[in-house]
Amino acid sequence: MIVSLHVQQFALFEHIELELQQGMTVFTGETGAGKSILVDALGAVFGARANVDWVRHGADKAEIIAEIESNDNRLLDMLSEQDIDVDDGIIIRRVITSEGRSRAWINGVPTSAGILKHIGSICFDLHGQHEHQTLMQPEFQQQIIDARVAQSIKDKVSSTHSALTNINKRLNDLHGNRNDAIQKEAWMREELVRLEALNIEEGLEESLDTECDAMRNIEQVQQAAATALNLFDEQEVNVRSLLGEISHQVSAVAEHHVSLKEADDLLNQMDALASEVTPYLQDVLNTHVDMSALQQTEDRLADLRAAKRRHDTDEAGLLALMQSWLNALSALDTASWDEEALKSEQAQCEAAYQEAAQALHDARIKAANILIKNLRPFLDQLGLKNMQLQASIVAQDDKQAWKEDGWDNISLLAAANIGEPFKSLADTASGGELSRLVLALKGCGALENEPDTAIFDEVDVGIGGETGWCVGELLKNMGKDRQVFVVSHLPQVAVCAHQHIAIQKSVVDNRTKTELSPLADEAKEQEIARMLGGVNHESLNHAQTMLQRGQNS
User: Which of 4, 422, 534, 539 has its CA 20 to 30 A from that of 526?
Assistant: First the structure.
C-alpha cells in the first residue's frame, strides 16, 4: 500500500503531503478542481510517460515521492535483483524537468521508468473510465475464466502441446530432409564415387605434390646421386677410404690424449653413419620412373585440388562431407521406418493433448458457471439485475487451432434483459454497464494477482440512487483487504469511505493552485452537503443521515 505521498510543483499542485491509510479513501471536489491531476501524479510514480505539462508553470521541475509498504514476494525479489535494499521500506522518487526529462530513484538508487512500470503492475491498479474496453478483449475474458481453473490442468495442456509441437517438427524435418535427399541422391552418389577414388587422407595434396616433383626431375636426381656415390665410395681415393685412414691414425694414439679419445669416438660414429648413406644413393640410382605412373599421380593431384575448390574445403572437410552424404543416403534408405515410428508417436501425443484439452474445456465450463453465479449478487447490487451473462466456450476441431492454452474459443456474452438473445458484451452493454461489470468482477475476486492498491477514477459516472449506494458499499468492502482510492462525484459513494480527502482549487497572488485536505467529521458533512447541491440546513441534515448509513454499511 501507499503510506504517504509528497507532490511538489506538479501541475496545479504546489506542495502536497498526504498520509494515506488502509481501506477506502475517497477524493472529492468541484469539477476542474484537480482530481485528474492526482491520478496523473500516482501514474507518474509508477512509470507513466513523462509529460512536460506536469511541471507547474514557472517551476524548474516537478517532484513526486511515494512511500510504499508491501510484502509481495514478486516486488521484493525484483528489487533484490536490482540490488536495492528494502529493510527500511520502499521510497520511490521521480523528477520531471521543465524540458521534459525524467529521472527516478528507489531508496536512493537510480532506476528507470520501465522498472517503475513493473512495480506499478504489482502494486497499483488504475481502474479508469475506459478500463471496460479491456473487458471486451477475448484474451482478457479467457484470463478471467482461466484464473479459476486449477494450474495442474492448464500445465497438462501446455506440456502435451509442447510434446506434440516437438514431434510435428521432427516429422516436418524428416520430410524436408528426405525430399532434399531425394533431389540430391544421384549427385551425392556420383560425388561420393569421385571422392572415394582419390583415397583421401589429411596431407594428401602435399604428399602427391612431393611425389610428382620427384618423378618429374628424376634425371637430375639420379645424376646427383651417381656423382655423390662415386665421390663417397667408388673412386680410388674416396670419402669412405679417407675417413677410414683418419680413424686408423687417431685410434692408434687416442689413449695418450683426452681430445684424441673424443675425436676417435666421433670418427667411429661417422663411419657407422657413412655406411648407411650408400644404400640410399643406390636406391635412387635403381629407381625406374614409369611415365604412366607420373601421369596417374598428376591426375590424382589435379582431381584432389579440383574437389577442394569445388567444395571450398581441405582434405578433412572433404572427409566430413563424404560422411554426411553417407549418413543422408543411409537415412533415405531407412526414412520410411523412421516416419512410421514418428507417426505412431505423433498419434500418442495427439491423444494425450486431446485428453488434456478436453479436461481443460470441462474445467472452464465449470469455472465459468461458478463465476457467473458469484457475479449475480454483485450485478444485482450495482443496478444490473436484468443483465444476464453467459460464457461461450467452444472446442475447435481443426488441429491448426490447437494452442498451448487449449483448443477453446472463449467469449463472455450478455443479454440486456431476461429472455433476450445473448450477444457480445460490445453489442449489449453500455460503457457504464461494462464499467460496473468490471467493478463486480473485482468485487468478487475474479481477477487474479490483484495489486495492493487500486484507484477507481469516476467509476460511478452515470449512476445514482440505490445503485450509487451499492457501488459505495462494494468499494468499502473491497477496502477490507486492499487500499482503495476512489475519485467520485457521488455522495452515496463518498460517505462509505474510511478516509475522505477534499480537492480544492483556489487563487492566491494571481496563481491558481490545488490543495488536498483530509476531512474530519464536521468537514465531511460540509463536503457531502456541497455534493448534494449546496450547503444549507436541509442538506447538512441529509449529509449526516447519509454518513451514518455509509459508516454503518
Answer: 4
329 part of a folded domain:
yes
373, 365, 488: which is closest to 440 by C-alpha? 373
Distance of CA 479 to the CA centre of its chain: 35
- Enumerate residues 6+ apart whose C-beta is below 8 A from 24: 475, 476, 478, 479, 484, 486, 496, 497, 498, 499
Across the range 474-488, mean pLDDT stands at: 86
pLDDT of residue 300 exceeding 70: yes
Tell me how long the chain is.
553
Instruction: Classify residue 309: in a domain, yes or no.
Output: yes
Q: How confident is the model at residue 130 (pLDDT cuts 50, 70, 90)?
A: very low
Kindly state the cell numbers that stand for 246: 683418419
How many folded domains does the chain comprise?
A: 1
Give CA separation, 42 vs 10, 38, 444, 467, in Å: 11, 6, 25, 28
Do 126 and 352 touch, CB atoms closer than 8 A?
A: no
> Is 122 domain-assigned?
no
Q: pTM for this structure?
A: 0.60
Query: Rounded CA gap, 303 and 298, in Å?
Result: 9
Grid cell of 380 as nine digits = 444485482
Q: Alpha carbon of 401 to those of 209, 394, 396, 397, 409: distances in Å?
A: 64, 12, 6, 8, 9
Which residues are CB-neighbours of 374 under 8 A, at least 6 positions away? 444, 446
Are 208 and 296 spatial neighbours (Cβ–Cβ below 8 Å)? no
pLDDT over 70, % of the chain: 93
Q: Distance (Å, rounded) from C-alpha 516 to C-alpha 531? A: 17
pLDDT at 131 over 60: no
| pLDDT of residue 65 exceeding 80 | yes
Range of the domain at 224: 173-333
**Residue 294 CB burial class (10 angstroms; 0-12, 13-18, ≥19):** middle
Q: Do residues 307 and 194 lie in contact, with contact meaning Cβ atoms separated by under 8 Å? A: yes
Q: Which of 320-329, 346-355, 443-452 has the lowest mean pLDDT?
A: 443-452
Q: Mean pLDDT across the chain, nearest whole number?
A: 85
Asked if the model's pLDDT at residue 129 lies above 50, the reply is: no
Cβ neighbours of residue 208 closer than 8 Å, sequence gap 6 or more? 297, 300, 301, 304
Per-residue model confidence (pLDDT) at position 533: 85
Is residue 124 in some structural domain?
Answer: no
Rounded Cα gap, residues 111 and 114, in angstroms:
8
